[in-house]
Amino acid sequence: MQFKNGRFTVSGVDLLNLTEEYGAPLYVYDANKMKQQYERIHRAFSGVKRLRINYACKALTNLNVLRLFRQLGSGLDTVSMQEVELGLMAGFDPHDILFTPNCVSLEEVNEAVTKGVRINIDNISILEQFGDQHRGVPVCIRLNPHIMAGGNSKISVGHIDSKFGISIHQVPHVLKVVNALDLKVEGLHMHTGSDILDAQVFLQAVEILLRAAGDFPDLDYLDFGSGFKVPYKEGGIATDIEDLGQQLSERFNEFCAGYGRELELMFEPGKFLVSEAGTFLVRTNVVKTTPATVFAGVDSGLNHFIRPMFYDAYHHITNISNPQGKPRIYTVVGYICETDTFGINRQLGEVREGDILAMANAGAYCFMMASNYNSRYRPAEVMILDGKVHLIRRRETMQDLLGTQVEVPELVEPVQA
């Protein structure tokens, strides 16, 4: 989001004009920023001969976003059969889709096999059943390195008490299963968690995976997950992807030389690619003053934008209707019947009823976690591609809410004449 001539824009498009055309609340995505982030990570690891970036689509699965990354050359990291289906609809080759579920049934894994996508298994029970039913089908194994990483306990997935992955201490057991069932293990995978603050912690996990890889002679790739941190506050800490790229590339190339062939280095960034590309626009319904606080109550809530409540996440808020207004302190809240607070004691240009507030870093895990709580409609989504505005999801209506409901005839009372 840029400020120029008294107006806030995204890729040259006036945000206030978008709310006039499409209403509020509204998600706006900058395709150019997504491209920049994708190209940045490619440059950071340019020292690796074989590199594959798989967009972790759980961050944002709108078909147009998926198609954008496919055109850029990305693969796809998926965690459900629905994401697999969306990826295929977006035109991804099945071989470019990695299916990395957690705690799903063997039936769902079997369905993924029929689609021809790559399979990543994170528990020994399913690995045994998979090997028994799918002799000769290549498989990736997700290992848990027992590294505590991530900016929040809810997104730290590589520690010893995590439900994700097979413990690194169980590799001897895994090897027995692999040998007994003659499994073809084509890849090893790990993911420590989101919002990695310390590159050295990540590199420590890398070393653990590389040591394990020495026990698997037929590997084609190593997937190191992602979790690269993007800044949420001005001047905020972010993963130094260029420094990490240089260090990890050197270590990976060294490992490949010892392993005897060039493996493919994989990552699965989601937030890194789309978070900063998103802006969420809301309209101020009411300015309410209490003895202790001035509230700016907006036309949205945790039903549309749950990260502040769920993760205590910080999202920068700007009054784009009155950016040069007198600075005042507000707590920005939503309209849901529980406490749903977007920001506490934020300094904004004086907020008036009707003003549009913009929330930054709204591209990842924001619309995707939206719901119809309080029976409210989910908002529209707009993508700005090469300076042109595209509506990529319309606002929901009552028909959408009722679309999957089935009436019980005995409960339908006749309409009075």
Automatic annotation (TrEMBL):
Domain annotation Orn/DAP/Arg decarboxylase 2 N-terminal: ranges: 33-275
What molecular functions are annotated in GO for this chain?
Answer: diaminopimelate decarboxylase activity; pyridoxal phosphate binding
Record-annotated Orn/DAP/Arg decarboxylase 2 C-terminal domain positions: 27-363
What's in the keyword line of the UniProt record? Amino-acid biosynthesis, Decarboxylase, Lyase, Lysine biosynthesis, Pyridoxal phosphate
Lineage, top-rank taxon, reads Bacteria
Pathway(s) it belongs to: Amino-acid biosynthesis; L-lysine biosynthesis via DAP pathway; L-lysine from DL-2,6-diaminopimelate: step 1/1
Q: Binding of pyridoxal 5'-phosphate: at which residues? A: G227, Y365
Q: Where are the N6-(pyridoxal phosphate)lysine modifications?
A: K58
Q: What is its EC number?
A: 4.1.1.20
Catalytic reaction annotation: meso-2,6-diaminopimelate + H(+) = L-lysine + CO2
Annotated substrate binding lies at R307, Y311, E338, Y365
Q: Which GO terms describe its biological process?
A: lysine biosynthetic process via diaminopimelate
Active site annotated at which positions?
C337
Q: Name one Pfam family in it.
A: Orn_DAP_Arg_deC
Kindly list the cofactors needed. Answer: pyridoxal 5'-phosphate
Indicate the quaternary assembly: Homodimer.
Q: What does this protein do?
A: Specifically catalyzes the decarboxylation of meso-diaminopimelate (meso-DAP) to L-lysine.
State the family it belongs to: Belongs to the Orn/Lys/Arg decarboxylase class-II family. LysA subfamily.
**What is this protein identified as?**
Diaminopimelate decarboxylase
Gene behind this protein = lysA
